[in-house]
């Protein structure tokens, strides 16, 4: 990477971080202007338009980066070759850490962006994330079976549906806020609940 590309990448990252910080408040994205983003990023408005074309593209990229980093971190945890229980605890903690990094408003805006704005790119990314997440969980369940931590009587399909139901329930803001302090207990019940 030459000096120009490196500076461009750093400037883009600076703008994304500034936008993330502004989105990660209780303010709605409609209240976040390009002027505020430029001030927070210490760049001119024209620089932002040069890299992202529009506020809409910039916000989409912030949400996309957040999801991609969540996927990457989950992938590293699952394929780190830890025992089943440690991996499951680390995955749960990772999810909670990512949720703790954002405000409820950010989460609601992200979900709104994916569902109501019919953003095909983000919707595709979420479908890919869901599919990859299922494959990672299957790999984890197979490891758990080999270690004697997951009962053989539970089919892959049942385990995927079981965890999907739990995750979808947790993703509801009113459930998530109440469950957050009980991450350790939640994970222990998951582990003991699937043990033979």
Features of the shown structure:
196 residues, mainly alpha
Average pLDDT metric: 83
SSE run: HHHHHHHHHH
What is the global morphology?
elongated
Percentage of residues in helical conformation: over 70%
Descriptive notes:
This protein is mainly alpha-helical. It has ten helices and no strands. It has helices at 3-23, 34-41, 45-52, 55-78, 84-100, 104-115, 120-146, 156-170, 173-179, 183-193. α1 (3-23) crosses α2 (34-41), α4 (55-78) runs antiparallel to α5 (84-100) and α4 (55-78) packs parallel to α7 (120-146). The longest helix is centred in the last third of the chain and has 27 residues, at 120-146.
Short précis:
The protein is mostly helical and 196 residues long. It contains 10 helices and no strands.
Q: How are the secondary structure elements laid out?
A:
Blueprint: H1 3-23, H2 34-41, H3 45-52, H4 55-78, H5 84-100, H6 104-115, H7 120-146, H8 156-170, H9 173-179, H10 183-193
Helix pairs in contact: 1-2, 1-4, 4-5, 4-7, 5-7, 5-10
